[in-house]
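REQUEST FORM: STRUCTURE PREDICTION
Request ID: SP-0412
Submitted by: Lab K.M.
Chain count: 1
Length (residues): 221
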Amino acid sequence: MIEKDLVILIPAYNEKPRIGSVLEIVCSYQGKKRIVVIDDGSEDETEKCARQYPVEVLRHKKNLGKGAALQTGIEYAGDALYWIFLDADLINLKHEHIEALCQPLKENQTIGMTIGMFQQGGKLGVDLAQKYFGILNGQRAISGWFVKSLPDLSWSRFGVEIFLTKIAESREITIFRPLLTGITHHTKESKLGYLAGFLYRLQMYKECLYALYGWKKYMNK
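STATUS: Completed
RESULT:
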């Protein structure tokens, strides 16, 4: 498989109403790139919506979690100089945000990963969560050499960002945190309703805590 300069992975679960606006921006981003959407067992028409764009679409038959979706994308896409992981529910994503994630890796080969930090996105709660719990941030760019060294991410579900960060820190790999101004994302409550969204958020936090305290056992798997 021909190596691309950049592979963009977008895991998605029940994101039909939102993924289109993300793909509009990603597909029009200039440069040699490969865009892979991983539909993680959606019950809506996320896959159908994604296939309307010039992207490659993979699908899990059932929901396996964000970590497994990213792992599927990595194994499918093969090698790349740079990788970007983006959420499918972003609001106001722009080309400059993608560039802000990837450019530090191009300028400094010792940087293994960037983690985008939202600011002034219009949702104070999201901005504060990004500021104080940056380890959970899903918008990341990763150098190809770091991706090649990663253990299997499939177990980690919503804890995948924690796992990636802990791997980098344990190996003393440089992490850069660019500011992404004017971008935010839909909250669980806005997508599912208050009660269902709150319960889903609790499940997410449970998975994150498991990753935070149990990541070491998966380092060599």
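NOTES: The first strand starts at residue 4 and ends at 12.
Reviewed by: T.R.
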